[in-house]
Specification:
Layout lengths: L8 H13 L10 H6 L11 H22 L3 H9 L3 H17 L2 H24 L10 H6 L11 H26 L8 H16 L14 H11 L2 H23 L12 H19 L2 E3 L5 E3 H6 L5 H22 L2 E8 L22 H21 L5 E8 L5 E9 L4 H12 L15 E5 L7 H11 L18 H9 L1
Antiparallel strand pairs: 1-2, 3-5, 3-6, 4-5
Length: 494
Amino acid sequence: TIGAVVSNPGVDKHIDRLFRRAGYNPADVRNREALIQTLDNNELRGLPFAIYKNIVSSDGKTAAAAVAAWASTPEGVDARLLSEPYFIREVWRKKIDWLRANRESRHVNDFLMGTVRKSLMRLDVVRSRQGVASDMTGELTAYWHGRWQRLADFTKREALSAAYEIGNRLAEMYGTECQALGLTEESMTNDQLDWLYCHLGREMLALRVVPPAWTGEWERDRIFTAILRMTSPDWWGRKIWRLRCDWRENQLRAIGAVHKKAHAYVSASSLIEWQEQRRKSRDFFKSHELVDEDGNVSSLEDMINKSTSNLAIRRHELMARQAGVELVAQQRGDVGIFLTITCPSKYHSNIQSGHHNAKWNHSTVAQAQSYLCRIWGRATAKLKREKLRPYGFRVAEPHHDGTPHWHALLFMPQAEVKATVAILRAYFIAEDRDELGRNTGARFKSKKMDPSKGSATAYIAKYISKNIDGHALAGELSDETGKPLNETAKYVMG
């Protein structure tokens, strides 16, 4: 029958080992079959589900009671803020100190019960989507359940230490399973290899890390390569640090540290870390040389500066490509359409004034970008079905709160303009359509290029430049922040 547990010697041995690691004698476990039935039939996990779910349920009830306690009084909110890591606490601490020194206590209390309280409650929701996945269990889950929740507060040293532990733990798990089942890399079948890979992969998914080669075509060599990465501390070091930075930025967006009235596009700490990483990279390039097989020596820094890692060269390349596409369009007699595409309001953490957006669904910047890519894919598939083939360029640009929006310059025959724009508009305004009313321009704008006012390349040159290095934009102000574009480019790059 569907869902029945079929006995397998290898699987039984594995489950027995998991019970022993959890501190249980397999022979003493009551209702063994009932316990196994609670497991995902396609996934073997490190701790009995019933035990772990009880822990999660208990944690959830405790958290709900804690929220009710701290959120009901100004003193509770202030104490909760003081208990937060420094990178969270510092966002509001100076403002609170200033209010206490210059305003009456009621103003301080109003600020705590209003802005700070809402920020902390938004922070709690964002954190609930981080940490260990509550619906998955395993060896890594059991060990990292408490520590993974504070990943956003990890230092570089702590992140590398965690990478060393996790990489070695997965390598140990892989070796243990191979030894227990008597497998070698040469002798194991594709099914056995796939089982081992999925077993390690689900341990990683519990930490919200997508395993390498998790999607795409299954190939034996590709899976072995993926396992090597999954068991490599160096690979984990890069992965954990990137995850830590993403989670940290999401938390800062939640409390209102990223918007035009605070720090536009990206948080101050993220910008500092990005600039420091660039400085270290430049120092590395300056201190190393390249030697070819003939003994010729070249400066690594010179080679880097001659590549697209050089922002000026990257900008030149994009502008040259755009000019080439425009030349082709002129020869074909096509017309250009400039589009501005924005996410629904629920993807924006803050409104234009800088205040919290009540409609925000606590999504991340990456999720907003995924939404745009997903809708674009559906819209272009529809265009292909209608035999419409526009071509051109897209540029992603952040709003003041970090939420991305797109600018696109598309070329097409004059006769296809109306149908193409109508299809694209229909797809990009479909989600949460009611919030737009008759003003669909808040989500989707289109403008036909006027050759008499400049070339199509000139239309998009500004957007390319202000998202790379701010070249030739001195004196121009950002529509998002009101600040000079040549100064805000570094925030966009960060």
